Amino acid sequence: MDQRDFHAAVTTLLADRGYRTTAPRRQVLDVLVASGAPLSAAAIHRRLENRRINLASVYRTIHVLLRLDVLRATDAIGGEKRFELADPVSAHHHHLICQDCGRIEDLEGCPLEERALRSMNRRVRRSRRFRIVQHDLRLIGACADCDRAGSRTRARSRP
Fold this sequence. Notes:
Order of helices and strands: HHHHEEEEHEH
Helix content: 40-55%
Distance between the termini: 56 Å
Radius of gyration: 19 Å
Strand content: 15-25%
Structural class: alpha+beta
Number of domains: 2
Shape: globular
Strand order of the largest sheet: 4-3-5
CATH superfamily of the largest domain: Winged helix-like DNA-binding domain superfamily/Winged helix DNA-binding domain
Number of strands: 5
């Protein structure tokens, strides 16, 4: 979906649910579309073109977009929430999260095979009487930069 179609779809969704398409909402969406990565509310605010839009407006916009399933929240290491476009807007994917610097990278596609998901769903339904309808996978480790920096630090500290 290109940016023009995306904005039209979100504008229609907002109107259908009784919300106006305000300048802050458009700009928050523009920032998220352009970022390609999950961003905190503060990071979204820093990237806004209109510096007069306050952080509270960014949070209100995020709240509305979460309620409408346009956005989804992602937890980073340390508990800071970050936000990205939801799966119907962006392709299904998971995240690689650096435990050292907090960087979040998309892991395109889904490493969980359909057969494994069906098997897990059957097992969980039998043991817990719970039906899985979606999943979210976070892989936590060290990004290339932090891993390299850690390797240099470990090499220097050896006798």
